[in-house]
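Quick start: what a row looks like.
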Amino acid sequence: MTQTLNGYVQVGHGPRKVLAMSGWFGSAADWQPLVPALDTDAFTYVFFDYRGYGRSRERDGAFTFDEAAGDVLALADHLGWDTFSLIGHSMGGVAIQRVLLAANGRIDRMAGVCAVPACGSRMDETRLAGFRAAVDDIERRAAIIAFSTGNRLAPRFTSHLARESQRQARADAFAGYLPHWAASDFSSEVKGNATPVKLFIGEHDPTLTADVMNRTWLAWYPHASVETIANAGHYPMYEVPVALATALENWLKQA
């Protein structure tokens, strides 16, 4: 029987293999602004869509990151990738760590872009309820995006991202992933992991700050470091795509 695979976008034909996982409001389309700046001779990129999102929108599932990790590894096997690196944006930070734990030594290095740590976002019930309300309320989605970019960008942009998130992701999937990145904690499983990790944070991101990275990712991964992306909030792939692509590849080329 032919195995069903998640949808994805592939860019490049180089020997270095990289798989990117998007955030809660995102999809594989989030990475397209980076493409003109990517070294497609050195790298092969796969931009992955979770079940219920983007090119995997019609694929049903439990909408967990253990499930997503299995889907990533099935795709890597299909592509013939023995080892590869990972990029995760926002909730994708949780996702790539679940892949790391399931991959049995196949991950070369990881890059987190405004990435949620293995302890989740540590939301209390009040804040979690506010995010749950965003499932059916596009204005609340736009407000969350505006806050996460420092309330400094054109409202038309944050409204556009909110509408795109509603178009790209099924409501049941959007709701399903939320507790797994907002309120889970598997930090004990990654503590001491020797995989090289680089965290890229936005200068204007009010939540995933250098202090948070130091207390979480850097406390658990002995070979982790942080770099701040100037003039960006939580969505540097849209705000400063060329700068982010350059920073990512400077890191990934060290593999």
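That is the whole record. Strands lie at 8-12, 16-21, 43-48, 84-89, 107-113, 197-202, 224-229. The CA atoms of residues 32 and 124 lie 34 Å apart.
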